[in-house]
Design brief:
Distance between the termini: 35 Å
Structural class: alpha+beta
Number of strands: 9
Helix content: 10-25%
Strand order of the largest sheet: 2-9-8-1-3
C-alpha cells in the first residue's frame, strides 16, 4: 500500500531524489498524507492532468503557529489569493473520484510551512511557488526516508 503527500516546495525538487524524514525541504503541503493500494506512477498519472498548465502561486508568510495534536510543531502560516485552496480542492476531487480514501484531509486546512532541521520561513516573506511534487512517504529506501515520486512545474 502506498502513502503519499502533495507539496509545493519553496525550492525546486528533483523527481527520484530522496531525503531523510528529519531533513524535509521547506514546503507548503497541499494534500496531507493519504494511502492507496496504487503505486506512485498511478498516483502521478492521476494528478498530472490536474496540475499541468497551472500557474505559479505567490504566497506570503504572515504569522507563526503551533500545529500537531500536542501543539508542539512550529509552523509559519502562509496565504495567497486563492490558488492554493483551488489546487487542493481539485487534487482531492481527483483522488476521491478515483476511489482513494482522503478522509483524513482536514476541513480546516491552513496553508503553512513546517519548521525543519533546514530552517523555517520567516514571517513577512513573499515566495513564488513554482513546482508541485508528489512525495512517496513509504519508499523502498525505508521508513526513515522520503522520495520525490514526480514533479510538475507551475507556469510563471
Amino acid at each position: 500500500m502506498g502513502r503519499f503527500a502533495v507539496v509545493l516546495p519553496l525550492e525546486p525538487l528533483t523527481a527520484g531524489a530522496s531525503f531523510p524524514v528529519s531533513a524535509w525541504p521547506l514546503h507548503v503541503t497541499v494534500v496531507e498524507p493519504f494511502e492507496t493500494r496504487h503505486d506512485a506512477t498511478w498516483v502521478a498519472d492521476l494528478m498530472g492532468p490536474v496540475l499541468r498548465g497551472r500557474r505559479a502561486i505567490e504566497a506570503a508568510s504572515f504569522d507563526r503557529a503551533m500545529f500537531g495534536r500536542r501543539r508542539d510543531v512550529p509552523v509559519t502560516l502562509v496565504r495567497d489569493d486563492g490558488p492554493l485552496g483551488a489546487m487542493r480542492t481539485r487534487l482531492l476531487g481527483a483522488l476521491r473520484e478515483a476511489d482513494v480514501d482522503v478522509a483524513r484531509a482536514r476541513l480546516d486546512y491552513r496553508p503553512h510551512v513546517t519548521d525543519t532541521s533546514l530552517g523555517s520561513m520567516p514571517t513577512g516573506r513573499r515566495v513564488m511557488l513554482e513546482q508541485t511534487a508528489l512525495v512517496d512517504l513509504r519508499p523502498p529506501k525505508g521508513r526513515a526516508m522520503r522520495t520525490v515520486a514526480a514533479v510538475w512545474p507551475l507556469e510563471a
